[in-house]
Write a structure and sequence with these properties.
7-stranded mixed β-sheet, Aconitase, domain 3, metal ion binding, Serine Threonine Protein Phosphatase 5, Tetratricopeptide repeat, iron-sulfur, tricarboxylic acid cycle, 4Fe-4S, aconitate hydratase activity, Aconitase, domain 4, single chain, globular, 4 domains, alpha/beta
């Protein structure tokens, strides 16, 4: 082990990155070496034990804690570690397996004072609080001292607050930095390995950025040259953090600009990020990581400038002459406490611990922590979203700007973030989920897995199910298409994929750290956003699809001056707000998700729709059948699925849906007259906000077409199959990727795959396929039409020019090898208008014999 580890250290050093943390097996072998009296590298090995084992409930942390506990219990010095040393080392492990040995040491006459100090500076205590409280009640003075220390928030006050003046060196990336730039999808496999993954940040050539190896390695040399100028870096951009994978993007940024976390290998926190606009989830993920995100006018900042930040005054000044460059207001003064605590999540956990300790001692609420500013009193009614969040908080509604911690009922985790969520859960010392349902999928990596993906597929399910979560299987399909089948109406959820947007209830997606917190504790922090109302009226016109209505939202917002596509001084009425949609109550839940899903591209915090009760009842009956089928098929954790079935059935026994008050207030109201939409609306390369009429882009050559992603359902593939039924060897390369194996099975049974294959289409396994661009990719520089979620530069393929469009328009473009004219499009659509009812049939599992739990056969993944 020792020689292999040295080799590993040397190999990593070639890339300028530290060694990976020790595994449980390596930690066992390290301890074996320490137990050998002839050990010659004792000091080096002890240093590894202290600094290279991940904290919390990592498997290696368990081995480490048990070894240190043995030293304490045996009162031995023979391993080069004294019992006092063991207490000190246990005190660096944050929480989890180290807590019980420290609690036991409170009864040791010699070690108790030191153990008390270590416990008083530890906040990941959770249910172990009761054990310490009981010792205090039984007269243990050291246990009482721990409770008193927590009550006085010494864990917080011992940490340094922000200085009045902070000198920083600017690293500016002009234009829009999306999270694909910061965490490239083709390198998603390395996301849990933060130092390695951070090398790929900004690896595409762009203004102001000089990658070491374009397409592979980012501007490491450029960043290092700036860091060599003595002062910390601040990341600056016009628009920062749009897109998905925010935690891995945050990890990459903080690896370059943050500070090492003592005793936590390969993670950094802190740092400063300035943006003209910072995407809301990215902003929150920076908060969670202890960084200070600030929105301000960045036009006066450029790479290499030396500036002084005055966080309390709200000023940025030139370091040399103190000229004022920009002024700002923090989003909330609580940000200052978050930075001091090491992040928003540690602050929330620590505040809760302090409150619990003060309650135990009969003390009043502390005034040590800054409090969020309360919203002004209002006599207005509540919006639908405000009522949903209110119900999750046990009140009628939550006003915009009000801080709250809603109960989280449903949590989703997908595979390119699952490894990070696992690591965050171990850091939080989570051994069991408090959220009602936590689900893990493998939709982004199952089609063409790398060896590291295969390892994740085999190890992550047990990690999730052992904590009471539900694990899907590689090949099952897209997380959203499954998770939506497990929802309870009018409840609140979250997920580490930005497209966790519920058609029933409301979801506030977050980075993997926040998602882990929600899964572990059953709540999440939320500064309630304002809402923007989009009200549809009139009748949909012939040939117009729901995807056209999705794109009508930015199209109309642009027309009203509420959204701009320019990156400097960008205006986006949806950013950070909740998108509420009215006037489409007749939609099925599968259709509603298409609209909710796309709120991610608007940078909205969440989305809600009011649907007719009849359609919700049909959806839930179907879903209960699917969940029973999952149990029969051996999916785990079965008790969690059984509980969710019971919750669905309880709702069905007494169905009711919340609705907005007539006098609710909105940040803006956008009305869209459906009678005015007479031709398709697409989003032009390479910006999902750049909505244009088909007539503006007609006849544009199309080389590749992708029909798939979470924006699709079975109806889209039937429509494409019917439109292409008589085509053979179409000119564009066509990719087909059904969202779930259930869709694939049904399409195969109905003969649609056969029709599509005759056109030359390539049928992908159920899952995300091209959407994220981390597996298969389109040809470099090609012109593409896609049904996927977003079309950022290089996402589907290097230098690809990607239009976003409906499945129907995509199929016609594939057939023609170019964007059709409006007349051509409407002529082709006549072929399916008369069979709409058959085309857009959805999977009602309670009406399909294959999903009845008695005597059914296992449904396997369809491969073509």
């Amino acid at each position: 082990m020792f020689e292999e580890y040295k080799t590993h250290v040397a190999e990593r050093a070639k890339n300028g990155i530290p060694a990976k943390p020790l595994t449980a097996q390596q930690t066992c072998e390290l301890i074996t070496l320490l137990e050998n009296e002839q050990c010659e590298e004792r000091e080096f090995l002890i240093n590894l034990l202290i600094n290279q084992v991940s904290p919390g409930v990592d498997a290696a942390a368990k081995v480490k804690a048990e070894f240190l506990d043995k030293i304490i219990k045996e009162k031995t010095n023979q391993y080069g570690i004294t019992p006092e040393d063991a207490i000190n080392i246990l005190g660096t492990m944050q929480g989890g397996y180290n807590i019980q040995p420290l609690i036991d040491a409170l009864d040791d006459v010699v070690l108790a004072p030191l153990a008390a100090i270590k416990l008083s500076h530890t906040i990941l205590i959770f249910e172990k609080f009761k054990d310490i409280e009981q010792k205090a009640h039984n007269g243990n003075a050291h246990a009482k001292a721990v409770i008193e220390s927590w009550a006085n928030a010494e864990w917080f006050l011992e940490r340094a607050s922000l200085d009045e003046r902070i000198t920083l060196t600017v690293f500016k990336v002009p234009g829009e930095t999306n999270t694909d730039d910061l965490s490239p999808a083709p390198e998603a496999w390395s996301r849990p390995d933060i130092p390695l993954h951070a090398r790929s940040m900004l690896s595409s050539v762009r203004e102001g950025v000089n990658p070491d190896q374009p397409g592979q390695c980012g501007p490491i040399s450029q960043i290092q040259e700036l860091k060599n100028r003595q002062y910390p870096l601040v990341y600056v951009g016009d628009v920062v953090g749009t897109g998905s994978s925010r935690k891995s993007a945050t990890n990459s940024v903080l690896w370059h600009i943050g500070k090492d976390i003592p005793f936590v290998p390969n993670k950094r926190s802190g740092g400063f990020v300035f943006g003209g606009k910072i995407a809301p989830i990215f902003f929150n993920t920076l908060e969670d990581s202890g960084a200070l995100p600030i929105e301000l006018d960045v036009s006066g900042l450029s790479t290499g400038m030396l500036i002084d930040l005055y966080p309390y005054k709200g000023e940025i000044r030139n370091h040399s002459d103190q000229t004022l460059i920009a002024s700002f207001h923090l989003k909330t003064e609580v940000l200052l406490d978050e930075v001091q605590a090491g992040g928003r999540i540690p602050l929330i956990i620590g505040r809760s611990l302090t409150a619990r300790a003060r309650e135990s001692l009969g003390l009043p609420t502390t005034s040590i922590f800054r409090k969020p500013k309360a919203p002004e009193p209002s006599s207005a009614g509540f919006t639908l979203a405000q009522k949903m969040v209110g119900r999750a908080c046990g009140v009628e509604g939550i006003r915009p700007g009000q801080y709250c911690e809603p109960k989280i009922t449903t949590v989703g985790s997908q595979d390119t973030t699952g490894g990070m969520t696992r690591d965050e859960l171990t850091d939080l010392a989570c051994l069991g989920f408090s959220a009602d349902l936590v689900m893990q999928s493998f939709c982004h990596t199952s089609a063409y897995p790398k060896p590291v993906d295969v390892n994740l597929h085999s190890t992550l399910p047990q990690f999730i199910t052992s904590r009471g979560g539900v694990a899907l299987k590689p090949g099952d399909g897209i997380i959203h298409s499954w998770l939506n089948r497990m929802l309870i109406p009018d409840t609140v959820g979250t997920g580490a994929d930005s497209h966790t947007r519920f058609p029933l209830g409301i979801s506030f997606p977050g980075g993997s750290g926040l998602v882990a917190f929600a899964a572990a504790t059953g709540i999440m922090p939320l500064d309630m956003p304002e809402s923007v109302l989009v009200r549809f009226k009139g009748e949909m016109q012939k040939g117009i699809t729901l995807r056209d209505l999705v794109h009508a939202i930015p199209y109309y917002a642009i027309k009203q001056g509420l959204l701009t596509t320019e990156k400097q001084n960008k205006r986006n009425i949806f950013s950070g707000r909740i998108l509420e949609i009215e006037g489409l109550q007749m939609l099925k839940a599968e259709q509603a998700f298409e609209l909710a899903d796309a709120s991610a591209e608007r940078s909205a915090a969440a989305c809600v729709l009011r649907l007719e009760e009849e359609n919700v009842i049909e959806y839930l009956r179907s879903n209960a059948t699917l969940l029973r089928w999952m149990i029969a098929q051996g999916y785990q954790h079965a008790p969690t699925l059984e509980k969710r079935i019971a919750e669905i059935e309880a709702w069905l026994a007494n169905p009711s849906l919340l609705s907005a008050d007539d006098n609710a207030e909105y940040a803006a109201i956008i009305e869209i007259d459906l009678t005015e939409i007479t031709e398709p609306i697409v989003c032009a390369p390479n910006d999902p906000d750049d909505a244009r009429l088909l007539s503006e882009v007609a006849r544009t050559p199309v080389e590749e077409v992708f029909i798939g992603s979470c924006m699709t359902n079975i109806g889209h593939f039937r429509a494409a199959g019917k439109l292409l039924a008589d085509s053979k060897e179409i000119p564009a390369r066509l990719w087909i990727a059904p969202p779930t194996k259930m869709d694939a099975q049904q399409l195969s049974r109905e003969g649609y795959f056969n029709k599509l294959i005759r056109t030359g289409a390539r049928i992908e396994p159920a899952g995300c396929s091209l959407c994220m661009g981390n597996q298969a990719r389109v040809k470099e520089g090609s012109s593409v039409v896609s049904t996927s979620t977003r079309n950022f530069p290089h996402r589907l393929g290097t230098d690809a020019k990607v239009f976003l469009a409906s499945a129907e328009l995509s199929a016609i473009a594939a057939m023609l090898g170019k964007m059709p004219t409006v007349e051509q499009y409407l002529w082709h659509m006549e072929r399916i208008n008369d069979t709409r009812e058959d085309t857009y049939r959805y999977l009602n599992f309670h009406q399909l014999a294959a999903y009845q739990t008695e005597g059914n056969d296992r449904i396997d993944v369809v491969t073509v």
